[in-house]
Amino acid sequence: MTPRATVQLDPVHFLELEITGRCQLRCGHCYADSGPGVGHGTMTTGDWEDLLASTRAAGIETVQFIGGEPTKHPDFERLVRHALTQGLKVQVFSNLYHVPDRRWGLFTDPDVTLATSYYSDDPAEHDRVTRRGGSHARTLANIQEALRRGIPLKVAIVELEDGQRVEQAHAQMKALGVNRLGSIDRMRGVGRGASTIETGVKELCGQCGNGRAAVASNGDVWMCVMSRFLEPAGNVKTTPIVEILAGRIWRDLLAQVPRGGAMTCNPESDGDDCAPAETLCEGDALILPVRRDRKLRLAGTPR
Questions:
Q1: Are 70 and 98 in contact (CB under 8 A)?
Q2: pTM of the entire structure?
Q3: Cα separation of 175 and 143, whole Å?
Q4: Contact (Cβ atoms closer than 8 angstroms) between residue 71 and residue 102
Q5: What is the chain's mean pLDDT, rounded?
Q6: What is the rounded distance in angstroms from the CA atom of residue 230 to the CA atom of residue 158?
Q7: Rounded distance, CA 124 to CA 136, Å?
Q8: Is 2 within 8 Å of 49 (Cβ atoms)?
Q9: 3-state secondary structure at position 106
Q10: Is 130 helix (H, G, I), strand (E, B) or coil?
Q11: Closest Cα partner for 186 from 67, 257, 276?
Q12: pLDDT of residue 134
């Protein structure tokens, strides 16, 4: 067999934390199968705090709270503040459906950034995607409030059907002043999206594990939240994250991902770049990656 070309990957320094599966919305394409009746998983608040306390030793500098809707976790604010006390930068990926007044103070911390998903400039179309009436009005109002407060905000737009007003949504966000707009992406064959699209590594953007990893609500470690259909590299409830990221299973998982071309993100290019549905590639995250001299080399892996 022809050996796969040598690929150089950044060590993990961006960690997605899927702290809950609960969400006010019922999006038909959700990669996490989240919804109003889904729980918070088996990771306790103490487990998450222990993990956060160990991240800097593993070389992690930024954590992204994601779900589900991460703000639905009963100790969401406690966990964000704990991350900040560890010297971590924080990104919150929220649907921005509901933001209590007190939470804006947390979001304006200089080490916190926001990200959200937006589907259409047409309220009825957006609400049809989220399966929650009034979600467009709430999310749009909170996008505008975040911008008014000067909070760095990334907006991801996902195309789910022909004729969806994604271009208009993109233009609307740009006109509002959102300066971190991902490329318009498509639904992936992961989670509920697997009902119409075949799941497989071809559904991955090629950046999984490149400077990033994810921890599920049960403690399992993935290359990213979109690679959840592959075996986990380990579980942080039984093994320290630093050991998991240095282990054989992690290296084997990295070798399974088709890397395509250059290992760089291109947020202006639609398609197989680094913007998987409803998540952010580290190279296109609000907190831009710091290039490392250290590289993880995968060589001679058979096709």
A1: no
A2: 0.83
A3: 12
A4: no
A5: 82
A6: 23
A7: 8
A8: no
A9: helix
A10: helix
A11: 276
A12: 97
Structure-block tokens of residue 239: 């093994």
Longest dimension (CA), the chain: 59
Return all residues near 62 (Cβ < 8 A) that are at least 6 apart. Answer: 13, 14, 15, 88, 89, 90, 91, 282, 285, 287
**Parallel, antiparallel, or unpaired for β 296-298 and 180-181?**
unpaired
* Upstream peptide bond of 68 is cis (omega within 30 degrees of 0): yes
Judge contact between 98 and 49, C-beta under 8 A.
no
Best-predicted range by mean pLDDT (32-41, 107-116, 268-277)? 107-116
**pLDDT score of 302:** 32
- Residues 20/68, Cβ–Cβ less than 8 Å: yes
C-alpha 260/C-alpha 220 separation (Å) is 26
* Residue reference for tokens 């990771």: 43
DSSP 169-187: HHHHHHHHT--EEPPPEE-
How distant is the alpha carbon of residue 184 from its chain centre?
Answer: 15
Rounded distance, CA 27 to CA 41, Å? 20
Q: Residue 264: its pLDDT value, please?
A: 42
Ramachandran class of 209: left when φ > 0, alpha when ψ lies in -120 to 50, beta otherwise: left
pLDDT in tens, 123-159: 999 999 999 999 999 999 999 999 999 999 999 888 8
Helix (H) or strand (E) holding 146: helix 135-148
